[in-house]
Predict the 3D structure of the following.
Amino acid sequence: MTRFILKRIGLALITLFLLSVIVFAISTILPGNVGRSVLGPFATQESVDALNEQLGTNRPIIEQYWDWASGLVQGDLGTSLTLQVPAWDLLQPALENSLKLALVAFLICVPVSIVGGVIAGLRYGGITDKGITIAGISFAAMPEFVTGIILILIFGIWLGWLPVTAQAPEGSNLLTQVKYLLLPALTLTLVLFGYIARITRAGMIDALDSDYTRTAYLKGLPSSVVVRKHVLRNALLPTIAVVAVQVGYLVGGLVAVEVLFNYQGIGLLIYESAREKDLPLLTAGVLVVGIVYLIVTLIADILYAMLNPRIRFGTAE
Amino acid sequence: MSAVAAPEPTPTPVTARSESRAARSERLRLLLRTPTVLIGVLVIGFWVFCALFPGIVCPYNPIFDNQLPTSEPPSWAYPFGTDTNGRDVFSRVLAGSRSVLLIAPAAVIIGTVLGTTLGLITGYFRGVVDDVTGRFIDAVLALPLIVTAILIVTAVGSSSRWVVALTIGLIFTPVISRTVRAAVLAEAELDYVQAARLRGERPPYIMFSEILPNVLAPIVVEFTVRLGYAIFAVATLTFIGFGVQPPSPDWAAQINQYYTFIDPYWWMTLFPALAIASLVVSVNLVADGVREVYER
Amino acid sequence: MDRNTRRTVEEYRGTDAGSLENNLIDELVNGELDRQEFLQRATMFGLSVGAIGALLRYVGEPELAFAASEAVRAGGTIRVGLPAGGSLEPYLLNDGGALALAGIPGEYLTFTNPQAKVVPWLATGWKPNKDASVWTFQLRKGVKFHNGKEMTSADVVASMKQYVGKGSNAGLSPFFDASGVSAAGKYTVVFRLKAPLGAFPYLMSQTTYQAIIQPASIAATPGAWVKSGMIGTGAFKLKSLVEKRSAELVRHTAYWGGRPPLDGVKVTYFTGSAPLVLALRGGQIDLAMQLSPQEAQPFKNNSKFKYYAQPTSAHRQLCMRTDQGVLRDARVRRAVALAINRPQQLGKVMLGAGEIGNDTPFWKQFASTDPSINQRKQNIQLAKALLKAANAENLKFNITTWNFLDHTDHAASIQAYAREAGIEVGLEVMDVSKYYDSEPAGADYATTTPWLNRTCSLTEYGWRGVPNLYLSRCYMATGDWNASHYKNPKFDAISKTYLEAPDLPTQRKATKQMSGILLQDTPVITDYFINYTTASSSKVKNYVPEGISHVRLAKVGLA
């Protein structure tokens, strides 16, 4: 088991290294005019030239990559071009916000989806199953910003129950912050519900159909015990994998939702830095998102391995 | 990459051997008899018709007829209302299908072609090529689709719709290549491949002329599944401002332009949104049907 | 007229009034200036209120009445929404959101009010020398910075030196350099300009939004203002700042303009206009910095909100390349201009929130604008005839612009009008980062960036108190914002006369001549001037929007 974990960490590190190379490579395709980016289109050419001279931006690429990478290892993610502050100063609060939203969305979405999938699986082929599946497909078919807009319209404006932006004012207590996060979390729940429920449902059907389940029933165990002890554990294995991937999406992939709700998370920061051509900030942000994803999948893999006896005891790899 | 399944549920590799004509037309007939698939095909067909013949279906010119009363709610005269520029929203929604029906399939075709090629290469050659490519793919897949898209679009510097199509195609390549690779791995062990090798055929020939026809099934399934995702992705990118710009009647561009006015002019946003939803649902219904038929 | 008044005036003429002021008074007396223009000129020359009043009485005009503001209750914290912006350092300011925030704790020497008059602010008076190449400013006494220190000439000098320094965005270095600004006493600052400039006081107002007066110790190091807490003289001082996200400010009790009614200000940055509008609608903010007329419209007849519209000289320039491409023939350009039905366009695109333009930068409310120029009107027949004469009957070109507020709608409307004249116009709508960037990135900026180089581009220009900026940077051959590449030596010569003339008749004459030339050459179509529109919750009292995006909260209260 330890060997497995070590191997996985090793793989993750290699992936991380490759990611940094790819991100850096993409960012250098576009040298851009640093001075112009900072001062904006209406500045005079002489001020732009003066600023460029001051910042000194013409070194060989390998040297720049090395500086950047070694800086990274020491925890320096670079400096934002437009604001001239360390990138981490901007990324850290944004990351915190994204994690908060991901957590709230996770806590609502996952249980609801799993329950939906379990029920659909138990009532396989029946009306409830069809209903849940179709609802899932329909909501999943709408891009998240579409779902978000409709929810804003209904709950934020027509009914006025929930605030339309997700950013709670500074210093709000936990409950207020959660209230502000409800609309985006609900949006995400609707978007992901279909997907997670479907996996769970498939897992349920497979598990219900399998040998060990039949054995359990034949042994005379009551239905609820069978489901709880045997079926769920095996049905949920693929669900864990899928949910883990979604966490990666929930932390960095919510650009459209964050734009819609003006939520100051890392997706919005990446989007803004792309529009402003603030390349150091963009690359730093992208890298952070990648790191979060790798960490989460690493944890998911370990979790999966612990739950899956075949891997735990080293027979399947 | 990991012991856990790949990021999305890929269908179990279908080891379909050379299919006879009869088998193929049998599948087609089965497909067309599934009610959900039929609905999907009908809806898609409707939008394709609108995209091809906007002149026939649109009561008003979606771009130039802008002398109508502005910001009118839906009524008998204007079933979807009018926008702030005095254009008929119904005509614009019908005409807007063209944009997405051009870009999304283009993106998927690019992704499928590249992904298939990559999958064939990695699946056939295995070894170092496969390992190294695999690690690169892992790295790229560590980022959410939209982040990668933003990164590429920014690097390219332009955000025209063809750049968007290319970007989405590139992003789908790794995932599609994985599926193809899995299928190729299974095929590569079989006799006819060994025979070809012994005959002295060169690898490109083996890959494209021998193996490819036999892995078409999963490729077709991937294509239809990715199409739904592509529409999704293109719409999202357009919505946040990369891609087609207003005043194009493209659905996501309309939402981008008018969702500021969602209160009180909800109709300018709702109908394009429902249009997107209808197309994605239909594509997914067809994709599901195709997948079921091929996995039988 | 009573003897006292006459005595005051004669005294003034004899002692304080320089030749310029005497000129002014002559014009007033001879009836060449009307009251409005006199006020404008007089304030520009820093005539004291007393002198102005006396002079007006001298010519039989009623005295100035000072508007009484709405009575407001003290207390409350206003929540303001601004569009996301870049750096807040004064010398780097270049976008609305950032300058709006910086302009709350930061203030300027003078103030260009909504009527395009420059009035005292941190400076109480100013005088030019004979040819307006040296300006002497008197500073207000007893103005306290947020750190408790009093503002003196040393602070002004240090700040100004930073703004004409390297890498500054203020656009002041063509007018004076670091050695040209000096202190002449604790409350007196002297500017020695490189060339005479009649409108210099306007340049020291908030329309040069970089020119915030900082404490000398902070101004000495460019880039230190934000880190040291944005110390300025404004009605509110910075309490906390989360870059790119939000800021909190509290009342500056020792504010020179009187204790502000509000306890504090909470600023939130919004990415994109939709969240801003929705937040105002949902009651999460009290005031939005700016909304387009279309966005502001739903707030108009709603008792929970207030709608504001301020006429400004802000306008859109449809620049057409005069040196190359299908639009280089002036007849073709005039044809395009003649295709547009301006009043109808204004009603449709801007919902009437503006004033039609005449293809010149001379806004009606500029004192120097000569109102006798004929307004261009739609004339499709003439347009077609011109196209025929220029052999351009199958004219086809693209309008390039970016997706901001109603730019695309504006371009689409021109496209529709052009169609009536048989011209085929395509729209190239870019993302902002492409429109204002070199193409390809890294190439020489001036010669490759779309907004300055496309055959036809549509760009918005912000509000100013005088048209100087537009003339020197957009129309003159040496201008760096000259997107139409317009080079007309005759025009440049007249423009130079205008820029240097401190007296109104010369300026008016120049303006009339320039208008004539521009109507003939039409390098730029200015089809309308824009009202600055915004909205707030109905709780907000006494708010007057300022045309270049500042939010002025010193006298605002919450019901």
In short: Residues 97-125 of chain B form the longest helix (29 residues).
